[in-house]
Amino acid sequence: MGIRLDIALLRNFVAIADASTVSRAAGQVGRTQAALSQQLKKLEDTIQQPLMIRSGRGVSLTTHGERLLAHAQRILHTHDEAVADLTGETLSGRLRFGLPDDYARIFLPGLLQSFAELHPQVFIDVVCATTPRLLERLKDKSLDIALVSEPDSPESGRFLRREPLVWVGSKGSAAFRRDPLQLALSDPDALDHTAAIASLERAGRRYCIAYSSGSVAGLTAVVRSGQAITVMTQTGVPPDLRVLPPSSGLPALPTIGITIQSAGRHASRLSHRFEAHVRAVLPTL
Known about the structure:
- The strands form three sheets. Strands 3, 4, 5, 6, 9, 10 and 11 form a seven-stranded mixed beta sheet that branches. The chain has a two-stranded antiparallel ribbon with strand order 1-2. It has a two-stranded parallel sheet with strand order 7-8.
- The chain has helices at 7-19, 22-29, 33-47, 63-87, 101-118, 131-139, 191-203, 216-224, 269-281, and strands at residues 52-55, 58-61, 93-99, 122-128, 145-151, 161-170, 181-185, 207-212, 230-233, 241-243, 255-262.
- By secondary structure, the chain is an alpha/beta fold.
- Helix 5 (101-118) links the parallel strand 3 (93-99) and strand 4 (122-128).
- The two termini are 34 Å apart.
- It has three domains: 7-77, Arc Repressor Mutant, subunit A, CATH 1.10.10.10; 89-146 and 258-284, D-Maltodextrin-Binding Protein, domain 2 (3-Layer(aba) Sandwich); 162-256, D-Maltodextrin-Binding Protein, domain 2 (3-Layer(aba) Sandwich).
């Protein structure tokens, strides 16, 4: 007989990976730390590979752990949907879901369409805003769940995907040659804004913020006019704009990680199900 992956072990493994610490995961799944550690060891014995490394700051995934996490999220998603279908369990209600504008254009259609096919009685209110504003709304409970951006980290196994930040300009525009450089950026505490400023200051490049807005539509309108350049995730660049290459002389930008956060530890069954759906589907989009 070959290796068999136990659903309960996979569910606890995903809980630890999401929480980044065994203690926090134990509280979320209702088990002791010792029991959860034993479950992790049992899964590692099954796989015959180390899956996590403990440190003073929590746990981080090994290469095999990252590979298993992607599989586990898909397996659990399919398992839970099969159980719901076979038992006649249906979801209904309304969910408040937030994500940045550029993620909405690329990811939202696929996420909503596939979830609606499974749960037609669920209504989802979508809020588009920058990550700092989404985090504020999660904190005050005016959102249930949100996709947010975080600085990339080689130790983080909780990212659903990583996206490089890129400089973006209008096709045929020479705005990237201006001195000082004219920028169109989002909120001052958003990652695209802070990354752009930090990279330009390290390079000693003069700049000015010509336009600032939390609306991607507003930023891209300014860029289309040829008056300024902006910073976006590479996936989110509209087809009528262009990624400015290294030959433009602009400094390199970092990569960010996309993760999902909920409004609290006592999330509803609908929130848990939608979060599992996002974790399973987003990496495939």
